[in-house]
């Protein structure tokens, strides 16, 4: 997550409808995958939805290592948990939530193509104005100005990261100011009760710490 | 899916809240997983949610073969897409949507334990009154009378299966009667527009076929 960032929260219903539209595009193209590969962790929910919409039973996960192709001695894309896959004669669909730099998607497709499937295609729900040409998937639904999309399955982690940024910058903060800071700096509105839960979980993960008993002041914990 | 079956649809919001409660139970127990294993395909969404709630980065997928332990020559649990996993020193959490017979969960845990993790635990959102003792996960939220839970990520597939059952029993049916049949036999209410989409998708998958042009009559396609 970059330093300065405009965020947009997506609901479960939104994600479901966007995955449905993605499935419609894929169907209209005539492409019928035999197997769907969901990139961990962001691609899991759209990948699972596409299985349902497209009638695909085989669903596997792939986690690309982010240092990528150039950093490995043999120039191969690296995956974190290698999986034994026989893709011969199969139509493959590689799915992620969005394509930002496109790196994961490009590497995943390279990796898959070495396994000699019949065909391989890529799909995401969103791409950005800034997504480089090679990172644009074969199928996508929305092309939007760059923002940080907060998907519902990553809300806790994203909010903890945003709060850490605020605390890191300003030092000690009262929870009300954290809430205001989230709105002002990241355009993220959450209610007080939920923010309290996030702060407690952030404390459990040793990323923030509550100081004092009576007042709800928090500081960041340097990792 | 059994022949006669009472169904219950769950919303995305419901699944999210139940996964959150599941995470709370796990946190209260003091168990902190280092890696989450989501069983394909049903366990993917709760597994992804638990990663977020519990702060777990490593997420992998496992697909158990259903003929299971006894059917393999060497008595080992079989997985469909074998994955290279180093679990030594790690706390593992195996996640599925629900535990019905408990077979997948039990086999997955056996498979994981052969890889000698530090600890392995299991978690599902629901179990049933009928779930055998050995199939009860370490963590679950709801214990309910046996029903077929229609999760939102499997709605298309489940509805196509239910419609196939109706058509198989009664032969030619008008779409309005299919809708009534879903209500009467499975306690599933869906609106006419959505049912039409399901029928068209069912036709695309060669499971049902529309007959005649003017009236919306459908028959099942014998596979």
Topology:
Two copies of one chain form a homodimer.
Chain A lengths: L6 E3 L2 H18 L5 E5 L4 H11 L3 E5 L5 H4 L19 E9 L3 H12 L4 E10 L13 E3 L3 E3 L4 H16 L2 E2 H12 L5 H13 L3 E4 L5 E4 L3
Parallel strand pairs in A: 1-7, 2-3, 2-4, 4-5, 5-6
Antiparallel strand pairs in A: 8-10, 9-10
Helix pairs in contact in A: 1-2, 5-6, 5-7
Keywords:
elongated, homodimer, alpha/beta, 223 residues, 22% strand, five-stranded parallel β-sheet, 39% helix
How does this structure look, described?
Two copies of one chain form a homodimer. The first copy, chain A, has 223 residues and is an alpha/beta fold. Chain A is 39% helix and 22% strand. Chain A has seven helices and ten strands. Chain A has a five-stranded parallel beta sheet with strand order 3-2-4-5-6, sandwiched between helices. In chain A, strand 2, helix 2 and strand 3 form a beta-alpha-beta unit. The longest helix of chain A is centred in the N-terminal third of the chain and has 18 residues. Chain A is elongated and about 65 Å long. Chains A and B meet through helix 1, helix 2, strand 3 and helix 5 of A and helix 1, helix 2, strand 3 and helix 5 of B.
């Amino acid at each position: 997550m970059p330093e300065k960032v405009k965020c947009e929260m997506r609901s479960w219903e939104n994600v479901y409808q966007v995955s449905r539209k993605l499935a419609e595009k894929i169907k209209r193209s005539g492409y019928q995958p035999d197997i769907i590969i969901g990139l961990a962790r962001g691609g899991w929910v759209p990948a699972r939805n596409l299985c349902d919409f497209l009638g695909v039973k085989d669903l596997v996960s792939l986690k690309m290592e982010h240092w990528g192709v150039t950093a490995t001695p043999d120039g191969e894309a690296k995956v974190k948990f290698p999986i034994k896959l026989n893709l011969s004669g199969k139509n493959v669909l590689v799915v992620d939530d969005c394509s930002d730099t496109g790196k994961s998607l490009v590497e995943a497709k390279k990796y898959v193509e070495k396994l000699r499937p019949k065909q391989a295609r890529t799909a995401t729900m969103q791409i950005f104005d800034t997504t480089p040409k090679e990172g644009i998937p074969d199928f996508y639904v929305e092309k939007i100005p760059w923002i940080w999309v907060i998907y519902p399955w990553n809300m806790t982690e994203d909010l903890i990261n945003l709060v850490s940024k605020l605390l890191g910058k300003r030092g000690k903060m009262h929870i009300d100011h954290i809430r205001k800071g989230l709105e002002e700096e990241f355009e993220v509105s959450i209610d007080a009760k939920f923010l309290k839960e996030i702060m407690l979980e952030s404390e459990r993960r040793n990323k923030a710490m509550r100081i004092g008993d009576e007042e709800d002041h928090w500081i960041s914990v340097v990792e």
